[in-house]
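During the no-cost extension, the postdoctoral fellow (Dr. R.K.) reprocessed legacy sequence entries with the updated structure-token encoder. One reprocessed record is reproduced below for audit purposes.
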Amino acid sequence: MSNPEISAQKKTIVSPVIIIGVLFFIFGFVTWLNSVLIPYLKIACQLNNRESYLVASAFYIAYLLMAKPSAWLLKIFGFKNGMAVGLFIIAIGALIFIPAALTRTYAIFLIGLFVQGSGLAVLQSASNPYITIIGPPESAAKRISVMGIFNKFAGVLAPIALGAVVLNNIDAFNANLAKLDVAQKTAELNELASRVILPYVLMVIVLAILAVLIYFSGLPEIDTDHEDETVAAANSGKTSITQFPHLILGVIALFFYVGAEVIAGDSIIGYGIAHHIPLSTAKYFASGTLICMVIGYIAGIVFIPRYISQQKALVYSAVLGVILTGLALFTPKYASISCIALLGLANSLMWPAIWPLALSGLGRFTKIGSSLLVMGIAGAAVFPPIYGLLVDKISAQTAYVILIPIYLFIFYFATIGYKKGKHVIAV
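Re-encoded structure tokens follow.
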């Protein structure tokens, strides 16, 4: 291929990468608000640990329930317009927060979170395979790492921005709450609940505008139904997605990984509080986890695929996850909290590596394969409440033992599982 052709190809890829990067920023911002919503709603709605982690369950269970409808929507609208539809659905979910806050009803908050998760399921079903297959397969993890920087940079900002509004002076608020009678306490809690209205009104406006811009953008559509000769030959006679065992194992790996990522990001504030660190300080801990993820993504951009394959990156990440979890279980206070924050580094390259390894060779099955991978995101609905239950039963520190089997399965997928059912080389 001549230099002008290479330059034209790179130019063709760069523009969509920027547009998709903006989308990753948006759903990163929406997703990582949960790390603040968990302690915020725990106070505003007077919840225990298990109940407060239903924030994650309501949000992420949508990925499981909406995966099939997402594939159906993408078949009708295509990748580009499907992204616009996803943004509108997220906006509706954010809008539901207004009546939830006005009535201080936890169930309505959970409905709003479920609708937001549904929109993100559509958005992720479109954007992740899009960025995976828009360029060379061997550098897919590098492109997803770029997306990860957009996503996690938003995640760094989200808890700080929302925390500054809804958790302002929260330690004094909490101390004063215990001294009030029932009527005064109700009035104060209603005021606390109302703090979330303005941020979510602004979110609705931004999401609606972005949906319109995406719909009318020049983002190119990708035909995943077309297969090159090699893939078509390998897939001849295949009639079901279940005939790709490496994909099924990839879905399970993603299910475990997302559970681990959300536990590390959403529990660290509560973990700090469990060590008697003021909430006014602990509210910044989630941003530390996400900063570590951004560092990991930058490393992915630099080293993949020039110095290390996507598959090897996943192996090393799983091993690092086991080591850091072990240290978090047995080290004191700030050292243990630092290990949980550093899990962001271990987790950072798992998403970028699992997607291309799982989608490899799917050809015309890519859309349904993508929807199954999105179903795997429901791991975040399962594991955080289990962690919360363990916190109530044992301790916030010992509860992190749940992460060990998670990272061990990801290690299995990275070494053996990604090859199941096909002859592959590391990508």
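The chain has one domain: 9-216+237-419. DSSP finds 21 helices and no strands in the chain. The remaining legacy entries will be reprocessed before the final report is submitted.
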